[in-house]
Amino acid sequence: MTxxxxxxxxxAPVTSxxxxxxxxxxxxxxxxxxxIEDVVRYFLSRNGKLLRPALVFLxxxxxxxxxxxxxxxxxxxETAELHLAAATEIFHAATLIHDDIIDSAPIRRGLPxxxxxxxxxxxxxxxxxxxxxxxxxxxxxxxxxxxxxFLKTAGEICEGEMQELGEKNNINxxxxxxxxxxxxxxxxxxxxxxxTGALVWGMDEARAEALGxxxxxxxxxxxxxxxxxxxxxxxxxxxxxxxxxxxxGVYTLPVIRCLASADRDKVVRILHARxxxxxxxxxxxxxxxxxxxxxxxxxxxxFVSRAKAELEGFPESPFKTSLLGLAxxxxxRER
Amino acid sequence: MTxxxxxxxxxAPVTSxxxxxxxxxxxxxxxxxxxIEDVVRYFLSRNGKLLRPALVFLxxxxxxxxxxxxxxxxxxxETAELHLAAATEIFHAATLIHDDIIDSAPIRRGLPxxxxxxxxxxxxxxxxxxxxxxxxxxxxxxxxxxxxxFLKTAGEICEGEMQELGEKNNINxxxxxxxxxxxxxxxxxxxxxxxTGALVWGMDEARAEALGxxxxxxxxxxxxxxxxxxxxxxxxxxxxxxxxxxxxGVYTLPVIRCLASADRDKVVRILHARxxxxxxxxxxxxxxxxxxxxxxxxxxxxFVSRAKAELEGFPESPFKTSLLGLAxxxxxRER
Lengths: 335, 335
Prior knowledge:
The structure is a homodimer of 335-residue chains. The first copy, chain A, is mainly alpha-helical. Chain A has one domain: Orthogonal Bundle (Farnesyl Diphosphate Synthase), CATH 1.10.600.10. Helices cover 74% and strands 1% of the residues of chain A. Chain A contains 17 helices and two strands. Chain A is globular. The A-B interface holds A 31, 33-36, 98, 101-104, 120-122, 124-125, 127-129, 131-133, 135-136, 139, 147-148, 151, 154-155, 158-159, 161-163, 165-166 and B 31, 33-36, 98, 101-104, 120-122, 124-125, 127-129, 131-133, 135-136, 139, 147-148, 151, 154-155, 158-159, 161-163, 165-166.
């Protein structure tokens, strides 16, 4: 399909779950602590794309479409799916909160980051609280395939963050290591979300693994696009400060590509310039001219193709259509 | 027994476990990431008292002493006990690392806190890493009584921290709320450690609950003593900055007691004084004269008695003797 779907139509087959998720998230995060309650409300006031819950539901839908003959009433599985979808988003939020401290990011979803508005102390604690609530929910509603998957994923995210921190300001960072960081830091949780939905409904191992690969490729495309938008997007649409990765010494694919090109010396000079605003706009111009932004787009497209290929073994269903559409959407989005 | 034991003799029945724990901790925290590896080495260079691993082993010893007729080779349980002891200490370390950020504590175990030496970013991530490694280990080696206990405890610690944050600078903080915070923030993990050791060896529920109460009372005495030492101890022996709770607006039992006495107005005036050093020494003098430090000691003694009473149902054993000795030790220690 060449026509690009918007998010609303991609989410259409899982509307009922998506509508319930924000309420479940609020329930899980309910606390008598006034300060944290305020933090939760503040954080939830901008829901984001809820991509991870959507993946849980789409994975669940795919699994159910495989076993059309199964008994219909499945209240236990539906409750589990819903709570795991919420927990995945809360888990993601926890990593964002700590990530924003680690990266000194001033803005998140168009609002000042938690650590800016409430101070790093409250942000550390709020991240711990979100993490704790997510873990408790996963252990309550997960099964013995889902729980180990989450533990592995949590470890990978943490490893990815650590690796990223260690590679800051490294002008010799390879594409290979960079991709490994993206896979751990971003793609692993997207893959985990999709597989979680599938595993709630007992999907066979081979198909669940194919979904894991879809999630990983999709996640790579997603993050590469995110990083490209940092140079091509509009700040008010993205709801975050552009160029903050650069300011923190985190080099993303376009920069890594340019550093490996004949323009290497130019990039290094720009990276070492003092004035951040000027440095950022000079770099943007160079990345454009050099073809590095185009290169990143092509890489993302390659990952999208590989993601979609992983769905070939699945019968047609609205859920499969949505996952194919989502893969296309993710590289065409403007925010 | 009136004679006070030192830590070495208290730990004597569990020497072999205690000797193995540091190596297991290092194994669990092994990472290819250079920066985090440095952080781990730095953190482990001062082992602390390893009180939580000791409690795991003492709980395990108590459980084994109850079932003297059980088969001797129990490699699986011994491995589990050892790894859970290490995980409990790592879990504790994770809370300390984040706690020191939250409380802006400059010194821990006689060295600059992680967030001071490595910056808050690395400290946030290191805390997350320690937490993650602990959780993975607990899920690998815990059983279906231990895992829920840890989840509950992790939630309580987080809640306790949040409550403490919310009560900062509250001159109307009641002893009741303060005790609730101490129970959640400190006592719960000590109780959890002791119960974990017991549950590895399948202790019956009633006895395991008695151990939980011992742990809670013991933990209260431990923390009240810690807070009292903040006013009576010597900085170089304690390995931390005195008066830092006060500087952060965290009021501990002696201050709460004094605020509820005829000296209330004096305390309030002192708490609102600008110069921290002067404020701290004025407060010390007042707490001494007012009897508030003595009051805290008496409260701690009360908790010690209640802790020891919980062990009455256990047959004599070296492990029981150590737990009785530990309860006495904790309020007599100077550091």
